[in-house]
Amino acid sequence: MRLFAAAAIVVAAIAAHFYAMDAGIYVAQLREGTVWFDNVLHACAGIATGLVWISFLKRFKPDTSFFGAALTLLAVVALAAVVWEAFEYAFYLVFKSGALGLTVYEPSIQESLFDSASNIGGAMLLLAAWALLRRLNATAE
Q1: Would you give the distance in Å from CA 129 to the centre of its chain?
Q2: pLDDT tens-place string over residues 47-69
Q3: Up-side HSE of residue 34: CA atoms within 13 Å toward CB?
Q4: What is d(CA 23, CA 20) in angstroms, rounded to the nearest whole number?
Q5: C-alpha span between 54 and 73 (Å, rounded)
Q6: Which of 25, 26, 96, 121 yields a CA-CA distance of 20 to 30 A from 106?
Q7: Which of 13-22, 70-79, 86-95 has the highest mean pLDDT?
Q8: Residue 122 near residue 46, CB atoms below 8 Å
Q9: Radius of gyration of the chain from its Cα atoms, rounded to whole angstroms
């Protein structure tokens, strides 16, 4: 179920990304000076990555404590964010004109930090929801 939810989030985020490109949302936001839509999509990626990590832990390390799972989830999401940002920057270096033609991002440390923080923020939202569900399940028993 978690993997299905992660896949659904990724598919929805990718569809939203291409819709935003086609509809000119990114261009309009760049003109306004703040691109918040990209950060929402990065938060969704953080949630999806976290769901995949939880599934991995539940399958291969089911005795992991909530605290241990939370710490490793944040680490995995942060690592995934850094790897993605490195990929984005490499894409920019190799295909500079194509990357600039997308008008989705302007590569900078600030943009990369905001994107990574958004991924981690999504992971923190997932952890909060997971903690709440654990508490509700414990109360119901």
Answers
A1: 16
A2: 999 999 999 999 999 999 999 99
A3: 3
A4: 5
A5: 7
A6: 121
A7: 70-79
A8: yes
A9: 17
